[in-house]
Amino acid sequence: MTGTAESSAIEAVAHALAAARHVAVLTGAGVSAESGVPTFRDAQTGLWARYDPMKLATPEAFLRDPQTAWDWYRWRRRLVTEVKPNAGHKAIAALADRVPRFTLVTQNVDGLHQRAGSADVIEFHGNLFEDKCASCDLREPAEPSDHGDAPPRCESSGEVMTPGVVLFGEEIPKRVLEQSQLAATDCDVFLVVGTSSWVYPAAGLADTARGFGATIVEINTEATPLSETADHVLRGPSGEIMPALLDALERNAGVTQ
Ligand code: BJW
To answer: Residue 17: CB within 6 Å of ligand 1?
Structure first.
């Protein structure tokens, strides 16, 4: 049991999960923090201490200084290949098998949910291991390359490519947005795990879910704009809270069988 969230709050959420027909989960960078992937708020470490990640994740950064933007994304690609999914990712993957219907929407681009065993993950902000051309829409798997290598250019348009992620000011792919909104309107419990709930339209999914009657649960180490309105707030690291929730759900199932 985690020493942070109240055990009564964990039991209450487990109870809601046990009764749910459809559980939807929205995750953010905090879920990968315990694997060693810095969050956006914490990302100004070491080599990158001088840079604001929120400014690097923009089309303007790629226009102004593509080399620096690419060096940052290549550094992150390398980092992510060197880390492993943590107990939070694994508990989310296991939760999918404990409820009748399950949807996982992640803002993360690191592929760690899939490596933990989650299937059909909706990648709201795309995937770090693709390159895309903003000019002709060509997408291709990322070539392994190093810090300092020239930014990749599209073989069709000749333009500098960007990683296959959704940068600030870019549109969320239509199908991804529709699938996520559909899950938010249909679920009975909406878990919001390890996200600052600042970045839209992802942050708006909790409002949609609430509007359609879902129980909203926030799992986060810190307060966020969602904390005030969530039905339950489980304060603590997702690598502790998610396994504790899963255990409580199993106990609940044992009692009701
Ligand atoms: C833990 C933990 C542990 C730590 N356990 N927890 C409405 C109002 C105002 C502005 C807008 C609006 N609608 C749209 C906008 C503009 C903008 C926006 O939202 N700006 C805000 C900053 C205000 N949105 C956009 O630009 C979006 N596009 C758009 O709206 O397009 C419209 C359009 C229409 C038609 C034509 C064209 C356009 C796109 C947003 C794309 C965001 N992209 C990024 C980069 C992705 C690629 C990459 O990874 O590099 O996505 S930015 C960055 O933020 C990344 C993340 O996915 C996203 C969210 O961050 P996240 O995951 O919440 O991380 P952090 O670091 O912020 O928080 C971590 C949390 O974890 C913290 O709360 C910690 O406490 C917690 N934590 N350890 C549990 N162990």
So the answer is: no
Band of pLDDT at residue 196, cut at 50, 70 and 90: very high
Higher local confidence (pLDDT), 1 or 245: 245
**Separation of alpha carbons 231 and 226, rounded Å:** 10
Apex 148 CA angle, 147 and 153, nearest 5: 100
Q: How far is the CA of 198 from the centre of ligand 1 (A)?
A: 6
pLDDT at 254: 67
Whose Cα sits closest to atom 64 in ligand 1? 29
| Structure-token match 């009748």, residue found | 100
Q: Of 255, 246, 197, nearest to 91 (Cα)?
A: 246
Residue with the nearest Cα to atom 58 of ligand 1?
Answer: 199
Query: Is the link from the previous residue into 243 a cis peptide, with omega within 30 of 0?
Result: no
Catalytic annotation on 125? yes
Ligand 1 pocket, residue 116 CB under 6 Å:
no
User: Is any ligand 1 atom within 6 A of the Cβ of residue 161?
Assistant: no
Mean per-residue pLDDT for 78-107? 97
Please report where in the chains the tokens 């102004």 appear, as a residue: 64
Q: Check 89, 125, 147, 232 and give the catalytic one.
A: 125
pTM: 0.95
Q: How many whole angstroms separate alpha carbon 98 and alpha carbon 179?
A: 21
DSSP 20-61: -SEEEEEE-THHHHTTTPPPTTT---GGGTTS-HHHHSSHHH
